[in-house]
């Protein structure tokens, strides 16, 4: 095979990528000087060999499939990533790009451009191994927290129940009553904390995703909060909401936590809560806004951490509601954040993956619950 085209030749020889010319069966007709650097072979050691023979057996079918594709659909290009045998007997990851120039009179070959991606692939494999280990370690921690919380709950409920009975049934002076009340309050608070911890540790238990109408999830959450909603006199306005492929009980839990916070962290002003969704690129952004206390800039990222509370201790809670929301949203592949101005109100936003087969059901904007 004579490579007579001068411009092509100089492009090949000055290219840091290895460039080879192969025939329709994969036989190597020419290898550029940089093939030596990348694979250790002198050009004459690879000419005449079939390039597929140098590919790791596990990657060979994929490479052969790509060769057939570029033969069937000239000029390509088509790519494959595969492990290629180095002269020293090791395999290195290489990205190959094939262009079919068999019908170009100047070339009459398939041009194969190869780039060393070994470092990238090794880094990716290591990153994946770390990520897998982190996931396993998180699961172990969650399991530990779940078991610990579950086992602690029973004796605590007993302490709580009996201390209340002692308070009610035993004759005590004022100081004794005060001390017994502290025991009752602390036990109650600890039960709340442990139940929060249990719910936090259990949120990772997934059912397979199903189509969920977000309006149903909101309706379920508002039904669960019917009593505090009534007491607060809140006006809840629900805008258009989509159907998403997700997990209904998890979504109810997110709406319930965010709505419950809007009810808890309100001001003297009549409470207004809005719920709506907007499509942004491949995602839905769901927004729950309120005209409550608002959150200072420096606390807006921190409040999603477990057990972190900014509110006054007089407001009930254990600092896990937003951590649960964050955990669920992230497990569903989204992100959650808050936009807020202290004294004016907050908008909690989270993203959900939009399914291209779903759409917003017909709903007049401003429908209220
Ligand atoms: P909890 O309500 O039990 O404290 P969360 O994790 O739900 O726990 O909330 C963490 C903190 O974020 C709360 O203590 C409160 O200070 C703040 N916060 C959450 N939602 C709102 C809201 N809608 N308005 C103002 N502050 C909020």
What does this entry look like structurally?
With about 375 residues, the chain is α+β, with helices and mostly antiparallel strands. It folds into 3 domains: about 110 residues, Beta-Lactamase (2-Layer Sandwich), CATH 3.30.450.20; about 70 residues; about 160 residues, Histidine kinase-like ATPase, C-terminal domain (Heat Shock Protein 90). It contains 10 helices and 13 strands. The protein has a 6-stranded mixed β-sheet with strand order 11-12-10-9-7-13. Strands 2-1-5-4-3 form a 5-stranded antiparallel β-sheet, with helices on both faces. Strand 4 and strand 5 form a beta hairpin. The longest helix is centred in the middle third of the chain and has 52 residues. The termini are far apart. The C terminus is likely disordered. Bound molecules: adenosine-5'-diphosphate (ADP).
Termini separation comes to 78 Å
Q: Number of DSSP strands?
A: 13
SSE order, one letter for each helix or strand: HEEHHHEEEHHEHHEEHEEHEEE
Bound small molecules, which ones? adenosine-5'-diphosphate
Shape: elongated
Quick one: CATH superfamily of the largest domain? Histidine kinase-like ATPase, C-terminal domain
Structural class: alpha+beta
Q: Helix proportion of residues, in percent?
A: 40-55%
Instruction: Supply the CATH architecture of the largest domain.
Output: 2-Layer Sandwich
């Amino acid at each position: 095979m004579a490579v007579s085209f001068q411009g092509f030749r100089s492009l090949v020889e000055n290219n840091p990528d290895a460039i080879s010319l192969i025939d329709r069966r994969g036989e190597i007709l020419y290898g550029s000087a940089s093939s030596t650097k990348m694979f250790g072979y002198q050009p004459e050691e690879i000419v005449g060999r079939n390039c597929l023979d140098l590919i790791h057996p596990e990657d060979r079918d994929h490479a052969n499939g790509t060769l057939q594709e570029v033969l069937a659909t000239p000029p390509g290009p088509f790519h494959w990533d595969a492990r290629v045998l180095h002269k020293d007997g090791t395999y290195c990851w290489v990205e190959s790009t094939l262009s079919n120039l068999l019908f170009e009179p100047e070339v009459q070959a398939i041009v194969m451009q190869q780039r060393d991606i070994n470092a990238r692939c090794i880094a990716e494999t290591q990153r994946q191994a770390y990520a897998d280990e982190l996931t396993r370690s998180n699961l172990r921690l969650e399991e530990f927290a779940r078991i610990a919380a579950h086992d602690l709950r029973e004796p605590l409920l007993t302490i709580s129940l009996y201390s209340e009975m002692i308070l009610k049934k035993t004759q005590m002076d004022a100081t004794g009553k005060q001390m017994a009340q502290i025991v009752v309050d602390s036990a109650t608070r600890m039960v709340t904390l442990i139940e929060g911890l249990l719910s936090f540790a259990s949120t990772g238990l997934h059912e397979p995703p199903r189509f969920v109408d977000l309006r149903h999830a909101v309706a379920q959450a508002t039904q669960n909060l019917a009593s505090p909603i009534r007491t607060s006199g809140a006006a809840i306005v629900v805008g258009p909401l989509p159907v998403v492929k997700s997990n209904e009980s998890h979504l109810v839990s997110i709406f319930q936590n965010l709505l419950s916070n809007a009810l808890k962290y309100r001001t003297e002003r009549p409470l207004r809560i809005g719920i709506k969704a907007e499509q942004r690129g491949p995602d839905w952004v769901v927004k729950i806004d309120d005209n409550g206390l608002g959150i200072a800039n420096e606390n807006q990222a921190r409040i999603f951490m477990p057990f972190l509370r900014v509110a006054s201790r007089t407001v009930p809670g254990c600092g896990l509601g937003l951590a649960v929301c964050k955990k669920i949203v992230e497990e569903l592949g989204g992100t959650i954040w808050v936009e807020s101005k202290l004294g004016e109100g907050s908008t909690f936003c989270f993203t959900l993956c939009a399914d291209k087969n779903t759409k917003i059901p017909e709903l007049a904007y401003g429908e209220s619950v």
